[in-house]
C-alpha cells in the first residue's frame, strides 16, 4: 500500500480550474519531484493536500484514510508537514520557538501542568529543545548556539533550514517542500541539496514531495518526477524520462521553442 | 543580591517621595532625584550593566524584595488614603492588563471591549449582591465567570474575523453593552447600581482600617492587599501560561495563522482558550473595582476605558508580562500625581501612545525570548 | 399614523442620516483602498470638520455675512480645506509611517490620534465640553406627500450630500488624480512603476476623504442643530461599520452601506419598543452579523488568501 494516494483531484477557484483530475501516488521513503511552469497547480496541490483549499472532486488517501473534509491542523497531526515557498517563520520568535511549534501536536503536558506541575513542563521543554538543537545541528553545527536568537536575525539559508527543521520536528510521515531553493544563490542551492540528502539519510522512512524550478535540485534529490501543466498531470516517471518528453518541454518553453 | 535590594529600595524611596511630596520644594527635590537616578542609569554604563547583571543573577531575590516593598507600601502611604486608593487601582489594572495582554499581545485577538468585560464583572457583583442578596465574596468569585460566559457570544466573530474587522466587532460590543446598561431597568439605567456591600470575610469588613500593632494603615489598605494578591496571582498565572505550549501556540498563530495550522495547531481551540482566560481576569478586575468603590455605573465602563487598558499594554510592551505591570504602575498613578494636568490626562495618554508606537513600538519593557523556566 | 406611512417616513429619515454616514464611510473606504489601513481617527476628523465649519460660520456672522447663500459656500470651503489638511497631517504623522508594521499598530496609533483630536477640541475650544448650537441657515418649512412630512431643510441636506458624493465620483473617475488613486488602490507597486507619485496620491486621498468628512460634520450640525466634541466616536464607528457593510475599498459600497445603516437605525427605532434608545443596539448587532457572515461586504470582492 502506498503512503499517499491522490485520485482525480480537482480544485476550482470560481471558473478557473486549478487542478484537473490529478492522480499521484507516493510510497514510503520515496522522494517525488513535482515540476511544471508557474501557475500549473503545484502549490495548489500542496495546499489541497494540507487542507488549506477544498477539493471540488477526487479524493486523497493518506495511510489508507480519507483526508477530505479534515481541517488543516487535523491533517498535520496525521503526519503531513510542509514548508512554504515564501518563508512563513515567525521572525519575532526565537529559533527554538519556531521549531518547537512543530512538536506542539505531540505535547504531553496541558494547561494545568503549565500552571501547577511546572517541573513536568520544564523537563518536556528541555527535551524538546534538545531535539530541536539536534535537528539544527544536522544542517549547520553552528545553529543550535543561536537557538535563543530571533529568527529574523538569521541569514536566508538558515531560515530555510529552520523551516525544514520545523516540518521535521512534528515527526511526519510525509514532508511537502514548496520550492526550497526559491530566492537562493547557486551556492546556497548547492548547500540546500546537501541538506536534503542529509534528511534522506537521517530519516530513511520519510516520504518527501518537493516542488522545484531548479532542475538540478529535482534531478539530484527525487527518485520520481511528476510534471503538471494547467492543472493536469502531463508526465510521470524518472527525471530523465519526464524531462525528455515533448509535452514537458513544450509546457516549459512554450509551443514554438519546443518545435524549433 | 544586596545590590538588587539596594536598587529596589532606592526605587521605592523615590516613588514614595514622588507621591508624598506636597510642597513645591519637596516635589521639585523628588523630581530632581528621580531624573538624576534615571540619568545615572541611562548614561553610566558600568552601573547599568552591574544592575542588569545583578537582577539577572538573582531573580528570586529581586522578586522577594519587590514583594516585600509592595507589602509595606501602605505603611509608607499611611498619611494618604487617596494614594492607597490609586495604588490599588493600579494593581487592578495589572490584573486587567494581564488578561487583555493574553488576548491582544500574545494571541493577536484585538479586543477593544476590555471595558465591557470589566463592566460585566462589576455589574455582576452589583446584581448578585444588591439584587440577589449574595455575599460579596461569593459575587466576586462568580463575576469573572459571567464575563467568560458572555464572552462566548463573541466566539463566532473571533473565529470568523480578524484584524480591523475584529476590532470593529469588539467596539460594537462595547457600545451595545453601554447602551444596554444605560437603558435597561434592572441594571439601574444611567444611575447604575449603588450601595454594593463591601467585601467581608468572617465578619471582617474590608472597609475597616487595619492596624499593625500601634500603626494604623490607611482606609483602603485591605483592598490594596486584596488587589496586590490578585495582581500577583494573575501575573504569575499569565507568566506561566505565556511560557508554555499555550503561549507558544498563541504567538505563532498571531504571527502566521497558516503556518500554525500546518503545524497542527487548532486555531479555534487556542484562540477561544486565550480569549476566555483573558476575559476571566478582566472580569475579576472589574468585580474587585465594584466592591471597592461600592457602586457601578455606565460611564465607568465606556469605550474610553478600553483605550486606557490598551495603553497599559502598549506603554509596557505588547506581549510582555513584566511590561503590563510596569505600564499599569506608570499609567494609572502618574496622571493623579500631576493633578494640574488632570484636564489634559487623556490628551497626554493619546500623545504618549502615538509617540511610543512611532519610536518605541515594543514598549518600555519589550517582550523577551521565551525560555520555559 | 398608519404603519406604511410611518415606515416611509422612517425610511426618509434614515436616508437623511445615511447620507451623512455615507460621506464618512467613503473616507474609510478610500483610505483602505490606497494604504490597506483603517484610519480610526477619521470619526474625530468628522467632528473637527463640524467645529471648523461652526467657527467659520460664526466668524462670517461677525463680519456680517449671515445670509445662507453668502455664508454657506465659504464655510463649506474652509471646513473642507482645513479638515482635509488635518487629515493629510494625520496620515503623515501616524498612518504612513506605520503602514508597513502590523495592522495592530496603525489601529492603535489612529485610535490614540483620535483621542488627541477629541481632547484637543474639548480643552482648547472655548467651553468645549458643552454641546454647541449650530446656526440654522438652511431653508425652513416643508410640505407633505401622502402622509410623509418632507422638510426643505432635509431636502437641502440630501442635495448637498448627494452633490458631494457625485463630486467625489467625478474626481475619482474623471481626473488624473482620481486615476492615480484607482491605480494605487489596485496595485501600489505597479502604479509606481507607471509613474504615479505614491506620496502625492496618498495625500490627495486623505485630503479628499477628510474633506468629505467635514461636509458630513457640517450637515450633521444642520441636521441636529448642535455639535459636540464626542460626536466623532459614534460617527467614526458608524462610518467604519457602513464602509465594512458595503465592502471595504469600494466607494459605492460605502455609500450603500451608509444609507443602509441609516435606514436600519430609523426603522429599528420605529419598530421595536423603546426603539429610540435601543436602535443602535440593533444596528450594531446587524453590523456584527454582517461581519461574521459576509465579511467582504455587499459590494466588496472576496479576497482569496494567498499561501
Write a structural description.
The complex is a heterotrimer of chains A (260), B (373) and C (307). Chain A is an alpha/beta fold. Chain A has helices at residues 42-49, 72-78, 95-100, 111-115, 118-139, 156-169, 186-202, 215-221, 239-244, 246-253, 255-259; strands spanning 4-13, 16-26, 31-35, 57-62, 65-66, 80-82, 174-178, 207-211, 224-229, 232-237. Chain A has eleven helices and ten strands. In chain A, the strands form two sheets. Chain A has a six-stranded mixed beta sheet, with helices on both faces. A four-stranded antiparallel beta sheet of chain A has the order 2-1-4-5, with helices on one face. In chain A, helix 5 packs across helix 6. The longest helix of chain A has 22 residues, at 118-139. Chain B contains 17 helices and four strands. Chain B has helices at 2-20, 24-43, 45-57, 59-76, 81-106, 114-131, 136-151, 155-160, 164-183, 221-242, 245-255, 257-262, 267-293, 303-316, 321-331, 333-337, 345-359, and strands at 200-201, 204-205, 211-212, 215-216. A two-stranded antiparallel ribbon of chain B has the order 1-2. A two-stranded antiparallel ribbon of chain B has the order 3-4. In chain B, helix 5 crosses helix 14 (303-316). Chain C has 307 residues and is mainly α. Chain C has a single domain, classed as ABC transporter involved in vitamin B12 uptake, BtuC. In chain C, a hairpin with a 2-residue loop joins strand 2 (142-145) and strand 3. In chain C, helix 5 (152-174) packs across helix 6, helix 9 packs parallel to helix 11 (275-293) and helix 10 crosses helix 11. Chain C is globular and about 55 Å long. The termini of chain C are far apart. The model of chain C has no long low-confidence stretch (mean pLDDT 87). The chains are: A alpha/beta (260), B mainly alpha (373), C mainly alpha (307). Chains in contact: A-B, A-C, B-C. Chains B and C meet through helix 8, helix 9, helix 14 and helix 17 of B and helix 4, helix 9 and helix 11 of C.
Amino acid at each position: 500500500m502506498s503512503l499517499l494516494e491522490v485520485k482525480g483531484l480537482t480544485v476550482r477557484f470560481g471558473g478557473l480550474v486549478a487542478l484537473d483530475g490529478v492522480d499521484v501516488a507516493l510510497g514510503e521513503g520515496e522522494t517525488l519531484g513535482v515540476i511544471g511552469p508557474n501557475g500549473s497547480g503545484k502549490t495548489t496541490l500542496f495546499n489541497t493536500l494540507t487542507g488549506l483549499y477544498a477539493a471540488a472532486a477526487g479524493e486523497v488517501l493518506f495511510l489508507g484514510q480519507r483526508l477530505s473534509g479534515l481541517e488543516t491542523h487535523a491533517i498535520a497531526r496525521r503526519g503531513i508537514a510542509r514548508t512554504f515557498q515564501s518563508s512563513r517563520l515567525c521572525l519575532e520568535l526565537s529559533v527554538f520557538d519556531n521549531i518547537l511549534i512543530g512538536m506542539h501536536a505531540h505535547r504531553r503536558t496541558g494547561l494545568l501542568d503549565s500552571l501547577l506541575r511546572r517541573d513536568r513542563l520544564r523537563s518536556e521543554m528541555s527535551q524538546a529543545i534538545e531535539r530541536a538543537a539536534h535537528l539544527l545541528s544536522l544542517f549547520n553545527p553552528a545553529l543550535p548556539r543561536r537557538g535563543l536568537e530571533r529568527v529574523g536575525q538569521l541569514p536566508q539559508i538558515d531560515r530555510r533550514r529552520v523551516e525544514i527543521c520545523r516540518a521535521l520536528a512534528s515527526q511526519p510521515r510525509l514532508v511537502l517542500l514548496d520550492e526550497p531553493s526559491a530566492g537562493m544563490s547557486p551556492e546556497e542551492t548547492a548547500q540546500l541539496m546537501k541538506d536534503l540528502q542529509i534528511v534522506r539519510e537521517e530519516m530513511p522512512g520519510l516520504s518527501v514531495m518537493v516542488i522545484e524550478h531548479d532542475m538540478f535540485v529535482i534531478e539530484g534529490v527525487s527518485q520520481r518526477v511528476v510534471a503538471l501543466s494547467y492543472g493536469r498531470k502531463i508526465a510521470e516517471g524518472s527525471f530523465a524520462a519526464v524531462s525528455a518528453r515533448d509535452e514537458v518541454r513544450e509546457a516549459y518553453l512554450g509551443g514554438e521553442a519546443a518545435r524549433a | 543580591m544586596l545590590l538588587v535590594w539596594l536598587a529596589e529600595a532606592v526605587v521605592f524611596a523615590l516613588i514614595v517621595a514622588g507621591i508624598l511630596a506636597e510642597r513645591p520644594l519637596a516635589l521639585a527635590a523628588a523630581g530632581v532625584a528621580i531624573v538624576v537616578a534615571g540619568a545615572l542609569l541611562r548614561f553610566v554604563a558600568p552601573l547599568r550593566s552591574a544592575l542588569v547583571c545583578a537582577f539577572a543573577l538573582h531573580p528570586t531575590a529581586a522578586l522577594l524584595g519587590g514583594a516585600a516593598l509592595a507589602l509595606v507600601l501602605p505603611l509608607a502611604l499611611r498619611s494618604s488614603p487617596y494614594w492607597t486608593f490609586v495604588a490599588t487601582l493600579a494593581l487592578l489594572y495589572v490584573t486587567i492588563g494581564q488578561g487583555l495582554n493574553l488576548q491582544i499581545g500574545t494571541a493577536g485577538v484585538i479586543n477593544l471591549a476590555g471595558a465591557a468585560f470589566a463592566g460585566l464583572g462589576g455589574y455582576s457583583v452589583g446584581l448578585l449582591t444588591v439584587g440577589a442578596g449574595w455575599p460579596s465574596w461569593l459575587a466576586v468569585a462568580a463575576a469573572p465567570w459571567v464575563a467568560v460566559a458572555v464572552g462566548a457570544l463573541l466566539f463566532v466573530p473571533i473565529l470568523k474575523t480578524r484584524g480591523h474587522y475584529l476590532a470593529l466587532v469588539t467596539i460594537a460590543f462595547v457600545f451595545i453593552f453601554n447602551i444596554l446598561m444605560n437603558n435597561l431597568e434592572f441594571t439601574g439605567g444611567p444611575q447604575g447600581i449603588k450601595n454594593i456591600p463591601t467585601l467581608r470575610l468572617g465578619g471582617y469588613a474590608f472597609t475597616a482600617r487595619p492596624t499593625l500593632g500601634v500603626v494604623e494603615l490607611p482606609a483602603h489598605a485591605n483592598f490594596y492587599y486584596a488587589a496586590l494578591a490578585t495582581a500577583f496571582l494573575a501575573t504569575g498565572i499569565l507568566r506561566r501560561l505565556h511560557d508554555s505550549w499555550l503561549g507558544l501556540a498563541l504567538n505563532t498563530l498571531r504571527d502566521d495563522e497558516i503556518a500554525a495550522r500546518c503545524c497542527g495547531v487548532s486555531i479555534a481551540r487556542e484562540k477561544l482558550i486565550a480569549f476566555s482566560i483573558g476575559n476571566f481576569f478582566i472580569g475579576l478586575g472589574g468585580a474587585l473595582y465594584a466592591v471597592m468603590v461600592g457602586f457601578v455605573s455606565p460611564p465607568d465602563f465606556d469605550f474610553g476605558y478600553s483605550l486606557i487598558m490598551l495603553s497599559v499594554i502598549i506603554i509596557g510592551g505588547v506581549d510582555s508580562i513584566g511590561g503590563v505591570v510596569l505600564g499599569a504602575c506608570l499609567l494609572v498613578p502618574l496622571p493623579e500625581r500631576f493633578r494640574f494636568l488632570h484636564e489634559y490626562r487623556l490628551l497626554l495618554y493619546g500623545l504618549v501612545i502615538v509617540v511610543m508606537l512611532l519610536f518605541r513600538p515594543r514598549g518600555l519593557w519589550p517582550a523577551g525570548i521565551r525560555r520555559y523556566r | 399614523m398608519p404603519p406604511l406611512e410611518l415606515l416611509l417616513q422612517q425610511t426618509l429619515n434614515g436616508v437623511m442620516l445615511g447620507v451623512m454616514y455615507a460621506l464618512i464611510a467613503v473616507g474609510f473606504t478610500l483610505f483602505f483602498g490606497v494604504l490597506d489601513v483603517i484610519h480610526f481617527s477619521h470619526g474625530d476628523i468628522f467632528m473637527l470638520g463640524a467645529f471648523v465649519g461652526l467657527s467659520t460660520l460664526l466668524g462670517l456672522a461677525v463680519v456680517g455675512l449671515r445670509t445662507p447663500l453668502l455664508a454657506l459656500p465659504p464655510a463649506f470651503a474652509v471646513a473642507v480645506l482645513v479638515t482635509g489638511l488635518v487629515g493629510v497631517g494625520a496620515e503623515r504623522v501616524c498612518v504612513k509611517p506605520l503602514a508597513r508594521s502590523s495592522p495592530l499598530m496603525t489601529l492603535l496609533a489612529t485610535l490614540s490620534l483620535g483621542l488627541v483630536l477629541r481632547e484637543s477640541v474639548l480643552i482648547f475650544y472655548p467651553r468645549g465640553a458643552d454641546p454647541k448650537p449650530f446656526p440654522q441657515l438652511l431653508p425652513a418649512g416643508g410640505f407633505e406627500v401622502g402622509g410623509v412630512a418632507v422638510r426643505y431643510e432635509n431636502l437641502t441636506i440630501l442635495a448637498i450630500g448627494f452633490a458631494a458624493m457625485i463630486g467625489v465620483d467625478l474626481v475619482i473617475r474623471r481626473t488624473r488624480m482620481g486615476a492615480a488613486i484607482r491605480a494605487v488602490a489596485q496595485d501600489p507597486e505597479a502604479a509606481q512603476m507607471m509613474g504615479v507619485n505614491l506620496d502625492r496620491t496618498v495625500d490627495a486621498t486623505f485630503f479628499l476623504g477628510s474633506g468629505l468628512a467635514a461636509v458630513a460634520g457640517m450637515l450633521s450640525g444642520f441636521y441636529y442643530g448642535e455639535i459636540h466634541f464626542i460626536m466623532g466616536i459614534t460617527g467614526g464607528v458608524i462610518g467604519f461599520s457602513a464602509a465594512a457593510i458595503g465592502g471595504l475599498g469600494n466607494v459605492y459600497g460605502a455609500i450603500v452601506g451608509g444609507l443602509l445603516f441609516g435606514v436600519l437605525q430609523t426603522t429599528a427605532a420605529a419598530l421595536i419598543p423603546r426603539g429610540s434608545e435601543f436602535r443602535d443596539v440593533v444596528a450594531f448587532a446587524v453590523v456584527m452579523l454582517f461581519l461574521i457572515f459576509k465579511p467582504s461586504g455587499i459590494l466588496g470582492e472576496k479576497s482569496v488568501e494567498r499561501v
